[in-house]
Amino acid sequence: MRKKSMILALISLLALSLLFVGCGGEDDSTATTAGSDEVIKIGFLGATTGGHADFGIKTLEGMKMAAEDLNKEGVLGKKVVIVEEDHASKQSEAANVVQKLIHRENVKAIIGDPTTGITKLAAPIAEDNKVVLMSAGAVGPNVVNTEDGQLREYVYRNTLLDAVAAPAVVKFLKEEEGWKKVALITSMNNDYSVGLSKIFKEALQNEGIEIVAEESIQDGDQNFAAQVTSFKSKKPDGIVFTGYYTEGGLFMKEVRKQGLDINMVGGDGLLGSTLWELGGEAVNGSMVYCGFMADPTMAEGKTKDFIDRYSKEHNGELPNMFVAQGYDAVMMIADAMKAAGSDDPTKFKEEIKKLENWQGVSGTITIRDNHEPLKSPVYLLEVVKDEEGQHFKVKAVIPVKG
Amino acid sequence: MFEQQIINGLTLGSVYALIALGYTMVYGIIQLINFAHGEIYMIGAFTGVMMVTVLGQGFFGSIIGAMIVCIILGVLLERTAYRPLRKSTRLAALISAIGASIFLQNAMLLWKGPQPVGFPQVINDAIYHIGSIEITKIQLIILVTSAVLMALLNYIVKYVKIGKAMRAASQDYDTASLMGININSVISFTFALGSALAAAGGVLVGMYFNSVAPLMGVMAGLKAFCAAVLGGIGSIPGAMLGGIFLGVAETMGVAAGLSTYKDAIAFTLLIIVLLFKPTGLLGKPIQRKV
Amino acid sequence: MTGMSSFLESVLDPYYIQVLILLGIYIIAALGLNLITGVTGMFSFGHAAYFAVGAYGAAILTVKYGVPFSAALITGGVLAALAGVVIGFPALRLTGDYLGIVTLGFGEIIRVIFLNLKITGGAMGLAGIARDTSIAIVYILVLVTIYVMYTLQNSRFGRALVAIREDDIAAESMGINISAYKIKAFAIGCFFAGIAGGLYAHLLQYINPNDFGFAKSFEFLCFVVLGGLGSIPGVILGTAVLTLAPEFLRSLSDYRMLIYGALMMAMMIFRPNGLLGGVDLRRLIFKNKYEKQAGRGTAAGG
Prior knowledge:
Largest interface: A-C, 47 and 45 residues
Number of strands of chain C: 0
Largest sheet of chain A: 7 strands, mixed
Number of strands of chain A: 15
Structural class of chain C: mainly alpha
Helix content of chain C: over 70%
Strand order of the largest sheet of chain A: 7-6-8-9-10-14-15
CATH class of the largest domain in chain A: Alpha Beta
Oligomer: heterotrimer
Order of helices and strands of chain A: HEHEHEHEEHEHEHEHEHEHHHEEEEE
CATH topology of the largest domain in chain A: Rossmann fold
Distance between the termini of chain A: 78 Å
Strand content of chain C: under 5%
Distance between the termini of chain C: 42 Å
């Protein structure tokens, strides 16, 4: 009997503690609702733990910098507060986080997610609840519109779209680098990679470049010996690699190990120092295109200020694309709020649609009629090794016209 | 090209085998699927990196350092997470193992961040040509090191007193303890041996692929466990055979253009083998007493 | 039903509703697994696969073929049960850990197939699913599931399953066709996983194969083992604790999963039979009635 009463006590304790924590949360939310008139809350949706945490952490850094800048004067006389929640890249948790940001924190806008999949998950929730969702990283299809092509009113993004960038890059590779035959590598369990490969395939065909081999890999793979061995004999001029940097670095290592002297090109999934930390010398000459590159020698105006400030605060580290896009996303929202004279999402979303040649730290952004951003220019970067060690260097700046 | 893929497969397979040995030995004695074993392998790889970067060790230093750290960790893990559950149901111990695995993964994520870390180059890579086959120095080192470690294990289990005690305990746990074998120390020793082999596997993989990440143990652990079951869980030669078999099959599958189905290859093979030989390739048939 | 939903939605904030719906869905799936692992004693480490079959089955039917939600949900459940039977036939010849690892393998194979199929959207996932799952529907189905499970467990069928778990040879010699019973239990368990999956897809509105990996299968297993194998209230409690814990631990941000792992170890070490393992709620509530047979009760409860 003693045992049973112990168990009963244990259960009631558990139930009580759950209730207590639940109520604790409730109190917290009433407090924040009361305070929501004096501040403008902007939610961060992203992972700060787990495998994709790097994108989330950088976006958040940019958002916090933007809030700091805005709070010198305030927006509509209010302070901007960034509310952060981690979902560790789990979909069910991401859905919980979006609901929590909207209903418990009463955010006016959500910045994120840096990945397409979770942005697609968050989009209908934001749309239904009339809260603006601005993704500072999603590049896949069907984000600002639904699957059947209907435009969403509350969902936007400020990224360089692959459909804009890849054709420009392919054209450059054909005309300036003389590529005629390529091997196309796709990471099949990565939605970004699958989508990008489709876009590249079309661009390559349009430019008349032959795809001599199509190989698949998976995110998380470490061993690419088999894939490289199988396309080696077809002698491609270059490799189009649509996955992420972790696999990209290791893949090139294997390419060099097997004695092939060709370079790789890929999207911003390859953008990160991890590429050479894992790939070593093998990634020298690898090319990556992206919507932003911090180059203190070339930058001017507010981009330069932004780079200088970030590197001062981070021991000389330069801001990456996610920092810049996170920063711009908050600034776009703030500018739209100022233009609308209101922090009501139903009002300021109209001003987001009107943004044209908007100057951000990451480039010029126009929101087109189809709600997709047109961002210029495309930065084509190359990994070089010099006295500073390995780093990305701007190889070409390719302007994009609408 | 076929021979080349065999070499690639053997290299991968010998690492699977090193990890699989830890699963199989532990299972042989206490019938526990030690799900945190993949994390020991991952921590071994990180220790290897730190032996080089922090303590300036070379190849042998980093392997031995990783082994020592993982032996301590493995024994500690058994004491805290498994020993209190030895008399409980096997699922309880399994959940505790999953908990330990989540704990260790996230501890490393917090400490090292999610991004993979490169392995400092401690061996100058070179390519040797044997006929039409190319074999890199690192591949050769992996093959030789795994062979030496497995031979050593075989010696310990067959000829050293504690190894004999291990075999006795895996034959019949209760009788062994009645015969004066200290079961607790045998189990600790088993965890130590398994963890040391996993640590070596971690360092070798880290060097081969030049990448060490907190989540690397998840798939590797699962595949190695598959290898152990494939070979017949509880059987030491079975784990070696299973590991090599799986490594070669997976590499061949990828070479044949099935790489999108890569993770499924290991499991499909496993299922086919188990349907025909329900206790694995070298497993003993289960005798059930009524 | 819609009236009840709108009432609940007016008193609870949508974040709570979201979390509670998710909890209800997980309870349905976990009760299905409980029938397989808890009652019949068959290890299944691939429950997320049947959950995925139900999710994709129902979502494809509503999105691509315009099938009504209720019909799609049931079809999803039936598809999952069929998948269970197809996998169960060969696999159920195995026992113990071997069965566990084979179900885990099948689970991964199903995930990889979804990753490569066109109709599932591959790695891009399936989007544009309507949010048809409401809190009333979920909790009505939770009640239905509890009722079905309770009736099953206390029927001749359920007692046969327990007999198989305790000693399959003895059960067989008593005239129980163990293969048929095992397959039936497996199919029923998978059916509920499929129903839960269909609800899940119509809650999240976007599904992706990577969400249905072995990590989710182990999550379901943890719900069942942690709550108490075979105990319906135990499974519900276990699911509640493990689904709500990450939400409550959210304030610990980066340390969240670390603590979650430690919590799992600690709970198993202190309650190896699960939170409610070996506890019979009826016996606790109607204490006097059972007091007379206390001797027997304690032996079984220990």
